Amino acid sequence: MKKLSIILAAFIAMLAIEANAQKFALIDMEYILKNIPAYEMANEQLKQVSQKWEKEVEQQAEKVDAMYKDYQANKIFYTEEQKLKKEEEILAEDKKTQELKRTYFGPEGELFKKREALMKPIQDDIYEAVKSISENRGYQMIMDRASAVSVIYATPKIDISNEVLSKLGYSK
What we know:
Blueprint: H1 2-20, E1 24-27, H2 29-34, H3 37-74, H4 80-105, H5 110-137, E2 141-144, H6 161-168
Parallel strand pairs: 1-2
Helix pairs in contact: 3-4, 3-5, 5-6
């Protein structure tokens, strides 16, 4: 009788633990993004616009360099007033170069804005798909395997990346 009550108590305790067990899942954001054509197209657009802007900044920097070389080659012929004027012109062009870099590539620059405009809708769709799956399957937490440094190993059974892709309309 005592054995039966111990076994019954252990069984009830296991059920209670199981009822309170939290469910976790993983996704691999890199894998998901790699399988979304819109993401690849957005990356290509960003690459092209970035290269265009880099070329523009490079041309401006070359202009400053040419002005400086010309100044160095001819400064013995300039009066002090002409030297000052040329130096100010070079500094003004260099300032334009730095401003152009900041405008395109700074923290709030055009590239940042373009990236956000292209990527945010894709990220929002992924978030909504993950949220929907989480709510339907009762997951308390879904972690990104690609960016979670602390995930050393996880069984593939809890990876729902393909399910997210299916929810987004990209069957795998």
